[in-house]
UniProtKB/TrEMBL annotation:
Its EC number is 3.1.2.-. One of its GO terms (molecular function) is fatty acyl-CoA hydrolase activity. InterPro entries: ACOT13 (IPR039298), HotDog_dom_sf (IPR029069), PAAI_dom (IPR003736), Thioestr_dom (IPR006683). This is PaaI family thioesterase. Belongs to the thioesterase PaaI family.
Length: 137
């Protein structure tokens, strides 16, 4: 299964921000987000909502690698914004730090092209076992 193609075809936000999946392995996901002016706020700084959205994707993808259910949803995502981000491409990494029976906790970092950390996050994903989240029409 080509996970990149699956997301591009079924998730309009993933496609809009131009996310590319660089790596996925057990407990880990790494994405690249391009610098594009339409993703920026005034001052040509990457919008915080775009940063948080890409961190949500990285955490969700990391969760997918350890999910023994059929789907997952973001239960909580906390982000600390540390530096303005304006030098792309950006790298977003999600690392599973705890896998429980019903939830997965992921630590996420967002870095610029120089490796400078712009944001750190901690998220919890709830594992769905009996009903897949439907893809809208």
């Amino acid at each position: 299964m080509d996970i990149q193609k699956l997301f591009e075809e079924n998730d309009h936000v993933f496609k809009y921000i131009g996310a590319t999946i660089l790596e996925m392995k057990e407990g880990y996901a790494k994405l690249q987000i391009p610098y594009r002016i339409e993703l920026c706020r005034r001052g040509n700084v990457l919008n915080g909502g775009i940063i948080m959205t890409s961190m949500d994707f990285a955490g969700g993808l990391a969760t997918m690698t350890v999910n023994d259910g059929i789907d997952q949803v973001t239960q909580e995502l906390k982000v600390n914004f540390l530096e303005p981000m304006y030098k792309g491409p950006f790298i977003v990494e999600g690392k599973v730090i705890r896998r429980g029976k019903t939830t997965v906790v992921v630590e996420i970092t967002f870095k610029d092209a120089d490796g400078r950390i712009g944001a750190i996050g901690l998220g919890t994903w709830y594992i769905l076992r009996d009903k897949k989240v439907s893809i809208g029409k």
